[in-house]
Amino acid sequence: MVSQILSSVLDGKPLVWFWSKPGEMLWIWGWALVGGILAWRVRNPFWLGGAIVGGSVGVFVVCFEIF
Q: In angstroms, rounded to a whole number, what is the distance separating the alpha carbons of residues 30 and 64?
């Protein structure tokens, strides 16, 4: 942790990085497309609920790993 803080101060490296606008837009549109396809293809409410929960967990895990 100290190494990262010193590297940030001395080398000018940011502690937190962000995606570019096109990258964020692609991320949002991609997940919106996945959700739309799931809602279109899965007609049973039970399976749709499971797919939504699974997708939400997947997004959380990916975002947590990226963070």
A: 18
Summarised one tens digit per residue, pLDDT across range 13-50 is: 777 778 899 999 998 999 899 888 888 888 888 888 88
Q: Which residues contact 52 (CB under 8 A, 6 or more apart)?
A: 35, 38
DSSP secondary structure code for residue 15 in this structure? S
Q: What span, in angstroms and rounded, lies between the C-alpha atoms of 27 and 34?
A: 11
The alpha helices in the chain, defined as continuous H runs, are 2-11, 21-41, 45-66
- DSSP 8-state code for residue 16: S
